[in-house]
Amino acid sequence: MITETDLEEDWEDPETEPEEAPAERMRITADRGQELLRIDKFLMNRIEGATRNKIQQSLESGFIKVNGQAVKPNYKVRAGDEIIIFDTRRPEYTEIIPEQLPLDIV
Questions:
Q1: Longest dimension (CA), the chain
Q2: What is the pTM of this model?
Q3: DSSP E strands: which ranges in 1-106?
Q4: How far apart are CA 96 and CA 23, in angstroms?
């Protein structure tokens, strides 16, 4: 027999977002001849439209990892470093509701 409390536990609120691990968005491996360069400057040169501020915020939030470890914005990229950038955007949870529009098609 299903009780009211059982239903409440199984019910999911569509307004709440599920907690999911961030998805990997990009993977970059530093070239063998890579000179020491701050990671924020390195990524600005590699990612079109990236700003230093956004990169630094992502680094501080742990959305950018080097060789599997979170690093600070002053980390110097070395040859062979594997940099993984995770997607910081959350998917939108919206309900599409049709709207009745009066149309006169001629």
A1: 68
A2: 0.60
A3: 24-29, 37-38, 64-66, 69-70, 76-77, 82-86
A4: 25
- pLDDT tens, residue order, the chain (106 aa): 343 443 344 444 444 444 556 666 889 999 888 889 999 999 998 888 888 898 888 898 888 999 999 998 899 999 999 999 887 666 555 567 888 888 888 8
Tokens of 38: 């701050």
Taking the C-alpha atoms of residue 79 and residue 45, their distance in angstroms, rounded to an integer, is: 16
d(CA 81, CA 19): 29
Domain ranges of the chain: 26-86
Which of 3.30.450.40, 3.30.40.10, 3.10.290.10, 3.40.50.800 would CATH assign to domain 26-86? 3.10.290.10
Bridging pattern class, strands 76-77 and 37-38 = antiparallel
